[in-house]
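Please supply some protein, with fold tokens.
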Amino acid sequence: MGLQISISDSIVQALRLPEPRIEQELRRELAIALYTQDILSFGKARELAEMDKYEFGQLLALRGVVRHYGFTELDDDLSYARSE
């Protein structure tokens, strides 16, 4: 099951983005906001942004967002490292 968010036409038209980039940019902005507020983990936020770990990490750095790194993230990284 997915979730759809309805955004009014007036807001979509007010966005200063080419139409093909609107969904991508909104997903990224939502991912950054939810990660910053500790509502989504790094992995889930990057999944929402449809970016790989490196790209999303770079995006956070460009925005001045400090990565949350705790035991959960360490476990994820160790699991990932073992699978290669």
